[in-house]
């Protein structure tokens, strides 16, 4: 289905398929499966081998990389991560994304913006995607702690990676990959100077984490607190729209 155009009036074809496994995870899954099979069939230690085999299956599931249908709307900001919308707050954007980075490259303007935080559990897909298309202006890695990613201070204290994207019209969108309790490595797929399309894969975080998106001034969230987001598909916001949307948990 990759590259196929589908629309909201029935054009295209869609069917369920097994998601692929990202190469970053194959080595871990194969290693765990190999150890499990050796343990079971060579050493006859089934009490250890079968749990290891189950662990291999869990690793493959964690690194699954399904295809997504990305909305082709110039005003749409799409979710960069699968997971639960745990915070929608008015904050100052990270200093690493603001102003001049020392090379003459302009970053996000100073001032309060809306931040949407998406928490990824170990059961979610951990491939992250860009919320808009454009030029990768910055990629800033920050070492840090590994406290629970759903804490507000994780945005400033945990291991994290800031990404700044500039659209062709000059609009800048920043987002941050944040490691969590279990996560120990953030892996980028892009570098400054790369051109990316909306919803393109830009990196992953191993084993539980969070992604923050900083909306431009004058733009409000279209998702609700507690809503499930799907990377590359869920529209988080539309540029310039600030409509209040309410939901009921049921």
From TrEMBL:
Active-site annotation:
209 (schiff-base intermediate with substrate)
Name the enzyme's class.
lyase
> For site (Cleavage (non-hydrolytic)), what residue positions does UniProt give?
208-209
* Regions that span the bilayer: 30-63
The EC number on file is 4.1.1.65
Q: Which InterPro entries match?
A: PS_Dcarbxylase, PSD-A
Mention one GO molecular function.
Answer: phosphatidylserine decarboxylase activity
The membrane-topology field of this record reads:
Peripheral membrane protein
* Modified-residue entries (Pyruvic acid (Ser)), positions: 209
Q: Which UniProt keywords apply?
A: Cell membrane, Decarboxylase, Lipid biosynthesis, Lipid metabolism, Lyase, Membrane, Phospholipid biosynthesis, Phospholipid metabolism, Pyruvate, Transmembrane, Transmembrane helix, Zymogen
Q: What are the subcellular locations of this protein?
A: Cell membrane
**Pathway linked to the protein:** Phospholipid metabolism; phosphatidylethanolamine biosynthesis; phosphatidylethanolamine from CDP-diacylglycerol: step 2/2
Reactions mediated catalytically: a 1,2-diacyl-sn-glycero-3-phospho-L-serine + H(+) = a 1,2-diacyl-sn-glycero-3-phosphoethanolamine + CO2
Q: What does this protein do?
A: Catalyzes the formation of phosphatidylethanolamine (PtdEtn) from phosphatidylserine (PtdSer).
Query: Can you state the subunit structure given in the record?
Result: Heterodimer of a large membrane-associated beta subunit and a small pyruvoyl-containing alpha subunit.
Give the protein's recorded name. Phosphatidylserine decarboxylase proenzyme
